[in-house]
Amino acid sequence: MASLSGLCSSFPSVKPNNRIGGELSPVRKDSLAVSTRSNSSFKHSVAREVSADLSKTNDVAGLKQAKQGGLEKDPKALWRRYVDWLYQHKELGLYLDVSRIGFSDEFVSEMEPRFQAAFKAMEELERGAIANPDEGRMVGHYWLRNAKLAPNPFLQVQIDKTLAAVCDFADAVISGKIKPPSPEGRFTQILSVGIGGSALGPQFVAEALAPDNPPLKIRFIDNTDPAGIDHQIAQLGPELASTLVIVISKSGGTPETRNGLLEVQKAFREAGLDFAKQGVAITQENSLLDNTTRIEGWVARFPMFDWVGGRTSEMSAVGLLPAALQGVDIREMLIGASMMDEATRSTVLRKNPAALLALCWYWATDGIGSKDMVVLPYKDSLLLFSRYLQQLVMESLGKEFDLDGNRVNQGISVYGNKGSTDQHAYIQQLREGVHNFFVTFIEVLRDRPPGHDWELEPGVTCGDYLFGMLQGTRSALYANDRESITVTVQEVTPRSVGALIALYERAVGIYASLVNINAYHQPGVEAGKKAAGEVLALQKRVLAVLNEASCEDPAESLTLQEIADRCHAPDDIEMIYKIIEHMAANDRALIAEGDCGSPYSLKVFLGECNVDELYA
Ligand SMILES: O=P(O)(O)OC[C@H]1O[C@H](O)[C@H](O)[C@@H](O)[C@@H]1O
Q1: 75-135+335-521 against 524-613: fold identical
Q2: What family does this chain come from, according to its entry (predicted)?
Q3: 196 lines ligand 1 (CB under 6 A)
Q4: What's the CA-to-centroid distance between 317 and ligand 1, angstroms?
């Protein structure tokens, strides 16, 4: 077998084409900047592009006279700006500080009509309009936390019934009424199998809210990585017998999830366990998964609704069932989300925290995603918030075309981990390096549950350090013209987490309207899935060609070019090379002779003929 070490591949980096078209060309802050930008060539090229845009549009004409200057640095004026713009949701104890984003009053006035249009679109969406026109779907995640808002009684009943079923099932599992066949008599573990929107919300919530000793501990299989899957199953060990496997897939046909399920089912067989007695599915009615569940008689099935997208499904059974099984108060999550929904229905920009976020994003990224969003929660339990937001924001906003069919290549890149940890990693670059981002700090006021705090040194607790690090980083970044938003909550509770999720869901929806894109589909993802399917189909052809050659002459070996020609895929020779490299590395039934670092020298053969396959 050939040794294939030393091979590497590199990918060219592609800069998005931020062309602007259609009626809603972005209002560009450069025309009315209060902020002094660095003298980078980027600034100049943007400025040139902007002046060209301005000449084509009417809506920003008057803004050229807007005041010029830098980010506000005078402490008194900055404090006034802070107080002036501070948003507070009293009941939720949530604050939003946008003072460190340099938008001007003129910019806000100019954006006002767009916001009114966005509010109108959101109102229609909530009333059941087909807000996802490409897929002909309604967008109803807001109804999940207040079923009365659903546009018809049938949907209301579906929502309420599902919530009741989730609560009843979780209670029954926790109390031991529903139990595994094993002698342990109680489910102790959850293995969640799902990917993307069917994993990220449950992962975030588990990390944020699961108690230290939950009634059921959760693990995730969120990939088709065999080693990752083996690791999760090995970690469960004998507890597989008391593991409730929740398979989550809206479509019920996502290959990674299907593979995870098949792998887990194999592990159950090998352990002599009956999977159906421990399997639960969350999926759309009549999906492939739903039908499998029915036929095999799994423990339970919960519905995913056509009108809830994966990335906004945390408040559906997708997020609620795993959370409830871990002892999280899901009704509190729903209350937090519903309260935030109410607040973000305001049509007064200053009173609508989601609109304020969208305003900041538009300003900071020029309405074209020219800057990245760095999300920094200063709280370990919120670690996965940035990963969760990465999908919510990037899959929603990262679109090639706007609603009028203009090529816009929209989006905002999101990344982040947590403070103060990141201060010892990449914040050096944020402070002094390439200026291609804005930060969102997530601040949690309560350091520890009451009664547990102590002073590390006179007058100073461990939490004071965390607080100091956040404030220090925010100030140091601002001093170097790096803009930031700060979202503050009192504590990480089911209610505040529900509110945070709802806040960002709405902000994404509003921002999508501002830039005139469909936030609720993901056509680009389909392209990758299709291409992956083509690779696997090519692999089957390669194996068939090698088998045919072996059947003709067991000693016959083929060059890559010969394989490509016989596959009628001469242009796919590189992919054929990668297929052979991968199969050889995994001791599959092929032999590759030669130097794999010199692909032309490779000779590949199977060594044995599979007659059945030949005539298959
Ligand atoms: O829930 P599923 O249908 O399995 O989909 C899981 C995920 O896969 C897709 O590729 C989409 O990009 C995601 O939005 C979705 O959440």
Answers
A1: no
A2: Belongs to the GPI family.
A3: yes
A4: 15
